[in-house]
Specification:
Number of helices: 5
Largest sheet: 5 strands, parallel
Number of strands: 5
Order of helices and strands: EHEHHEHEHE
Strand content: 15-25%
Structural class: alpha/beta
CATH topology of one domain: Hypothetical Protein Ychn, Chain: A
Strand order of the largest sheet: 4-3-2-1-5
Distance between the termini: 26 Å
Length: 165
Amino acid sequence: MEQKFPIKKVSLICAKGSIEDVYATLILGNGAVMEGLEANLFFTFFGMDAITKNRMDKLHTGVVGNPALRLPGGMRMPTLLGIIPGMEAFTSWMMKGQMEKLDIPPVSEFLDLITAGGGKIYACKTAVDMFKLKKEDLSDHVSRILTVGEFYELAGGEGSQIIFT
């Protein structure tokens, strides 16, 4: 089906640092690149963990307050179980294992794929300043550190979409 206003550019904002939130951004960004779209990924606040060298491949999933979290076999995990020491690490390990079985790469490799396909990775200046990060703390995939205004300028134009994951 031909779109009346075809999408030419996708700009994704990642503001959360859990496995499920970061991977939503990476999968959508990689999909955009694979479809031949211009892709801009903007990481801010806790999403910065995905592009910070010493954290990017050590993400966790939230277990407390996550009503969609399922135990093996499909049963919903009661929130109360999330407070048990080690449950977050165990759940994150399980998720990473499932992703590995599906050949879903770790964050650093996913960023390789996206940038190799022409996608751009950006860090939020406010978050960089707030967390006292420096450019050298960030992944080499990060093209630039942008203000929100600079990101919106870059993300705009006919046929563009901004998606907050």
